[in-house]
């Protein structure tokens, strides 16, 4: 009844942990939702009003997306990236996840995945019948691959097509890639295309976020959308920016889109124009200020001789490694943490790590972002007392996790 290629796949772990957490809460257990990554902030009011104003829009829009929206996104990206993009380079999709899936389906070659990688990259590659080449990365390199490691894979067979997934700021590590120029040199030297997943780029804690597209724009597909910076994950609007040099991929995605999702919801596309045309810099700055402070709180209070962890650099994730030999797998460890403390984490094995490495992903978003944002001034320094007041479950959950790490 099921095709063999599907039988080995399971429900996305990020969505599954959210459902498990909700079920446990319904049973009366106090759960600290550190497993599911979702923006804690509400969508800016002007974007919400734009959606209301366009609720009457009921016509099918162009497959590639509403032209005015694509023009707005192209202008927005051109300013950010310092490269001239046109509306024809933009494809609007029902979340960037769907567009990535279509890319996997049409791409004929091998997928290079740095480990750790977001949970859906590998399953989508499997469905697309593409071989995966995994690169085990190191903490000291911010969990990103080196140019040499990428080139070693390509040199095994230079005649193949290669697609590298590069996600910075990264899910699950919360780190930013610092060796983009080195990677871009390999890209220019060999037959390599990059999918630059920049869904967290607006939430980079350092100023002047750098994209790999700044170094090799003609080889880079940029993937991003509304879900993270705008708090609009449930709206399901993402987009690809594909340079003219890769127009065969753009055209093929449009063909597949015409036979799958047809077009993204019209009211949401019209509302998204406001998202990219209006100035939301203060909203984003407030978001980053809060996330950076909360992330640093978790980092400072969790790191120890029992827990190895890198300081967060963007987004809303940390990836602690527990120096614990009691458990056989990271999944077993996370099950025990949930049972003993109520803290929900995702095991590192879900992101490609060896199941015996005691790594986990921690999302520090279990707080009322809107309430937090409304009670602080722009660029206000956020101290421990404010975090305790507006993100109490973060404080309590981290305390439970730290006690667990020292007692096992």
Rg over CA atoms, rounded to whole Å, is 21 Å
The residue ranges in which pLDDT falls below 50 over 5 or more consecutive positions are none
Strand content: 5-15%
The assigned structural class equals alpha/beta
Number of strands: 14
Q: Report the order of strands and helices.
A: HHEHHEHEHEHEHEEEHHHEEEHEEEHHH
The average pLDDT value, as a whole number, equals 93
| CATH topology group of the largest domain | Aspartate Aminotransferase, domain 2
Query: What is the CA-CA span between the terminal residues?
Result: 45 Å
CATH C-level category of the largest domain: Alpha Beta
Counting DSSP H or I runs of 4 or more residues, the number of helices is 15
Share in helix: 40-55%
CATH superfamily of the largest domain: Type I PLP-dependent aspartate aminotransferase-like (Major domain)
Give the overall silhouette.
Answer: globular
Strand order of the largest sheet: 2-8-7-6-5-3-4
- Mind telling me which CATH architecture of the largest domain this is? 3-Layer(aba) Sandwich
Report what the structure shows.
There is one protein chain. The chain is α/β, with parallel strands linked by helices. The chain has two domains: 4-43 and 281-407, Alpha-Beta Complex (Aspartate Aminotransferase, domain 1), CATH 3.90.1150; 45-277, Aspartate Aminotransferase, domain 2, CATH 3.40.640. Helix content is 41%, strand content 13%. The chain has 15 helices and 14 strands. It is globular. The model has no long low-confidence stretch (mean pLDDT 93).
């Amino acid at each position: 009844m099921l095709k063999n290629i599907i039988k080995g796949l399971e429900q996305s772990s990020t969505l599954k942990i959210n459902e498990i957490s909700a079920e446990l809460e319904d049973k009366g257990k106090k759960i600290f939702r550190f497993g599911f990554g979702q923006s804690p902030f509400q969508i800016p009011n002007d974007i919400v009003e734009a959606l209301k104003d366009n609720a009457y829009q009921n016509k099918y829009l162009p497959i590639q997306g509403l032209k005015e929206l694509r023009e707005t996104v192209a202008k927005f990206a051109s300013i950010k990236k310092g490269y001239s993009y046109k509306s024809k380079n933009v494809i609007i999709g029902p979340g960037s996840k769907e567009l990535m899936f279509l890319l996997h389906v049409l791409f004929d070659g091998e997928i290079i995945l740095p480990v750790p990688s977001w949970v859906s990259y590998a399953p989508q590659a499997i469905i697309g019948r593409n071989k995966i080449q995994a690169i085990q990365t190191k903490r000291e390199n911010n969990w990103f691959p080196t140019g040499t490691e990428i080139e070693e894979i390509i040199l095994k067979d230079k005649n193949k097509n290669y697609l590298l997934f590069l996600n910075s700021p990264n899910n699950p590590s919360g780190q930013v890639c610092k060796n983009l120029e080195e990677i871009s040199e390999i890209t220019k030297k060999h037959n390599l295309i990059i999918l630059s997943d920049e869904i967290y780029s607006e939430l980079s804690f350092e100023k002047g976020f750098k994209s790999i597209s700044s170094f090799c724009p003609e080889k880079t597909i940029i993937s991003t959308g509304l879900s993270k910076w705008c708090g609009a994950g449930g709206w399901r609007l993402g987009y690809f920016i594909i340079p003219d040099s890769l127009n065969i991929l753009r055209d093929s995605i449009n063909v597949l889109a015409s036979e799958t999702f047809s077009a993204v919801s019209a009211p949401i596309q019209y509302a998204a124009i406001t998202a990219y045309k209006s100035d939301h810099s203060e909203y984003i700055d407030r978001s980053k200020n809060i996330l950076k402070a909360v992330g640093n709180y978790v980092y400072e209070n969790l790191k120890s001789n029992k827990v190895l962890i890198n300081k967060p650099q963007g987004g809303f994730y940390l990836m602690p490694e527990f120096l614990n030999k009691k458990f056989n797998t990271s999944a077993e460890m996370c099950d025990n943490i949930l049972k003993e403390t109520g803290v929900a984490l995702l095991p590192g094995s879900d992101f490609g790590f060896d199941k015996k490495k005691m790594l986990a992903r921690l999302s520090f978003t279990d707080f009322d972002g809107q309430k937090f944002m409304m009670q602080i001034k722009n660029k206000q320094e956020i101290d421990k007392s404010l975090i305790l007041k507006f993100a109490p479950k973060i404080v309590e959950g981290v305390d439970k996790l730290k006690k667990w790490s020292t007692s096992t």
